[in-house]
Amino acid sequence: MTSTRATLMQVAHRAGVSLASTSRALHGTGASPAMVERVRAAAAELGYSPDAIGRSLRLKKTFQVAFAVADIGNPVYVEMMRAIHEVLAPRGYRVVVMSTGDTATSTVDLVASLGSGVVDGLIVSPLRTDDRLVREIQEAPVPVVVIGRALDDHGISSVSTDSAGGIGQAVGHLHAIGRRRIGFLNGPLDTTPGAARQRGFDAAVHTDRTEVEIADDFTVAAGLEAARRLLARAELDAVVAANDLLAIGVIRAVRERGLSVPEDVAVTGMDDTEIGRVFLPSLTSVSLGSTERGRAAAKLMLRLADDPDSAVEQVAVPPELVVRESTGGAP
User: Fold this and answer.
1) What is the reported pTM?
2) Long-range interactions of 12-20: CB distance < 8 A, separation 24+
3) Does the N terminus or the C terminus of the chain have fewer Cβ atoms within 10 A?
């Protein structure tokens, strides 16, 4: 029976490189892209499959990184997950997706379990935070990278964006196209995104005539119910929604009232998700760089995995308004 080492040697021979170079190329560590392509082509020709268990035992690593979010079905997190995988996979890491639920306690429990040796690191985007979560992350036995601004002041590596400023961009765009009776449909205010986006709206509208409604969650269904309440009590010519899913609920509620988007009511979302781009009408939305944030978080994780004592780093991804049909932009 051919041994794993002999098979690895066969790959090295086929690729015409040393055994050490072959190992580095297959594991994505310290090899040029050309070398990686050459070695992997040879491995594919020979049907070589690395011994993942043996490698983990030898290096005392699982080569797994957890990506933990409150709602794994949210398209924002799906885009982040793809970007994280694209960065980690060439280095030999698998991405394990976990659901934290919507409470700080459930996220605390997840971080506290990291000592079990299931993963080598955690990338987490918490919906709610508290002091316990801060302590658990600071004392975690494996590297943790946070996607979000809530923990920036606690010496934790993070990737964030300015969602409050993004809401300001949406309001500014609505002002520019002549809308003045602007409503805001937000998610729960006790969440990190809900609180930030409310601050952004309050700062942007000044003395405008406005109405605010709070949805029970950041979902289409919750957005539809909240939008019905909002439109029933106020005659608006524009609605800013705190994310794309809520915005889709708003558009449905507008149509239920026999009105059209954007002629009667202009609608903006936030997150610039794929579903918003293909929806009819296509959704004007503030991009928070989901792909860029996922990619940056994965790069931070690799740096911490290589050197756990490296300095804390906080990366900021700026928001950007993308104008589409829901406010009268080009399709």
Assistant:
1) 0.80
2) 12/39, 14/42, 14/45, 14/46, 15/39, 15/41, 15/42
3) N
CA-to-CA dists, residue 230 to 196, 265, 280, angstroms: 21, 13, 22
Per 3-state DSSP, the chain is made up of helix, strand and coil in percentages (nearest 5) of 50, 15, 35
What is the DSSP secondary-structure string of 219-249?
Answer: SHHHHHHHHHHHHHH---SEEEESSHHHHHH
39, 26 contact by CB (below 8 A): yes
Q: Strand ranges (DSSP E) for the chain?
A: 64-69, 94-99, 121-125, 144-147, 158-161, 182-186, 210-214, 238-241, 266-270, 284-287, 314-317, 320-322
Q: Return left, alpha or beta for 187; rule: phi > 0 is left, psi -120 to 50 is alpha, else beta.
A: beta
Is residue 80 within 8 A of residue 72, CB to CB? The reply is no
Any idea what DSSP says for residue 258? T
Q: Rounded to 5 degrees, what angle do the CA atoms 84, 87, 93 make?
A: 85
Question: What is the per-residue pLDDT across 75-108, written as a single tens digit (0 to 9) for each?
Answer: 999 999 999 999 999 988 999 999 887 778 888 9
Q: Measure the CA–CA gap between 96 and 22, rounded to whole angstroms.
A: 26
Residues of the chain with pLDDT under 50: 1-6, 53, 56-57, 59
User: Which is nearest to 146 in space by CA: 167, 164, 127, 118?
Assistant: 127
- CA–CA distance, 286 with 301 (Å, rounded to integer): 26
Distance CA 210, CA 89 (A): 47
